[in-house]
């Protein structure tokens, strides 16, 4: 008998349980708290469950469940046992509370205090830096209001390297919406090769958080939305004179001639049912030669979780030859992010990813 744990956004535990029940019917639900779900599996395992690719779309972290720890001393004992196989990365993080969009200061402080205690006692067993690298064994200490849960995972390609799957994003004061964090988290998670000088189209852009994030990276954006855009976003000039141009009309009314023919990226964050949002994204993509798409799909109906495989098939068709992956990142609420991207060539890898201040590759042009 072995256990598997998954860290999720508080409030979507039922999504995780239903998705795992469909994909792995032999697993049995074992233990759950806000932001944490565990299962029993009959097959004994000497390794953690990190190799379970995409355990559930809503999981930020998953692996082998060790169990509930009654105290920091219990965690120290577990860590020393696990470290017999080699040094560990230490990830200590609060799991959050149901109904709360952000962690409370006292939750973060409790996690920081426990981490300080553990690092003081485990200097020989754990690495100094928390950010995981591929192949690292990570000790996850999941901090609740009055409980501790311990798990272990092996960091793999495509997983989130930071504790609790919380990607550190510095959101500037001028950002008008949560979409800034959403697109930045997706770019980091997917290692998206956005470069200064690129051109993007965004559907459902208002008030402009995602467009602003891209402009700060040196990417010019054509933002499609009948609603008003934030004036600060429209006035902003990024590296290489990157800017946001607003097409103030519904996406269905946009013509081919209004779109930049050299767009490299497509973003969509429409408040529509996922199949409808994907149809609009496909229509826009068909007029351009985009190499990738970052899509936010609203999952207001929990039954939509069962349709994710079908939605990913539709998403793949948006960019011919691309793969599609889905995840729920910390900035997402009742929604998921979908990354649709073609495999990078060696030349593209050498070109590198966007960095603020990089010279523009080309200016946006429209037909």
TrEMBL record:
MF terms in GO: methyltransferase activity
Gene3D superfamilies, per the entry: Vaccinia Virus protein VP39
Keywords: Methyltransferase, Transferase
Transferase in keyword set: yes
Keyword Methyltransferase: yes
GO BP of this protein: methylation
Protein name: Putative SAM-depedent methyltransferase
């Amino acid at each position: 008998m072995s256990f598997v744990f998954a860290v999720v956004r508080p409030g979507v535990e039922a999504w995780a349980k239903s998705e795992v029940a469909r994909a792995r019917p032999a697993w049995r639900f074992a233990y759950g708290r806000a932001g944490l779900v565990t299962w029993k599996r009959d097959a004994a395992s000497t390794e953690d469950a990190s190799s379970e690719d995409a355990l559930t779309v809503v999981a930020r972290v998953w692996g082998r469940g060790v169990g509930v720890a009654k105290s920091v001393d219990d965690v120290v004992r577990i860590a020393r046992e696990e470290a017999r196989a080699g040094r560990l990365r230490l990830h200590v993080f609060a799991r959050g509370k149901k109904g709360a969009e952000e962690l409370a200061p006292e939750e973060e402080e409790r996690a920081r205090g426990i981490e300080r205690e553990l690092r003081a006692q485990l200097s020989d067993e754990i690495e100094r830096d928390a950010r995981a690298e591929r192949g690292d064994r990570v000790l996850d200490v999941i901090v609740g209001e009055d409980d501790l849960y311990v798990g272990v995972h092996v960091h793999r390609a495509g997983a989130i390297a930071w504790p609790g799957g919380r990607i550190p994003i510095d959101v500037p004061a001028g950002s008008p919406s949560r979409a800034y964090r959403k697109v930045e988290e997706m770019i980091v998670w997917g290692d998206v090769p956005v470069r200064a000088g690129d051109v993007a189209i965004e559907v459902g852009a208002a008030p402009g958080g995602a467009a602003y994030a891209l402009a700060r990276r040196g990417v010019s954006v054509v933002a499609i939305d009948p609603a008003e855009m934030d004036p600060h976003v429209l006035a902003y000039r990024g590296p290489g004179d990157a800017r946001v141009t607003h097409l103030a009309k519904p996406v269905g009314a946009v013509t081919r001639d209004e779109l930049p023919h050299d767009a490299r990226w497509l973003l969509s964050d429409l408040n529509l049912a996922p199949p409808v949002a994907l149809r609009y994204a496909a229509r826009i993509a068909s007029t351009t030669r985009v190499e990738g798409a970052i899509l936010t799909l609203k999952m207001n109906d929990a039954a939509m979780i069962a349709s994710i495989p079908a939605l990913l098939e539709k998403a793949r068709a948006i960019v011919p030859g691309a793969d599609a992956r889905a995840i729920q990142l910390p900035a997402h609420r009742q929604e998921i992010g979908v990354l649709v991207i073609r495999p990078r060539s060696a030349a593209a890898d050498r070109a590198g990813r966007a960095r603020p201040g990089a010279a523009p590759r080309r200016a946006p042009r429209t037909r």
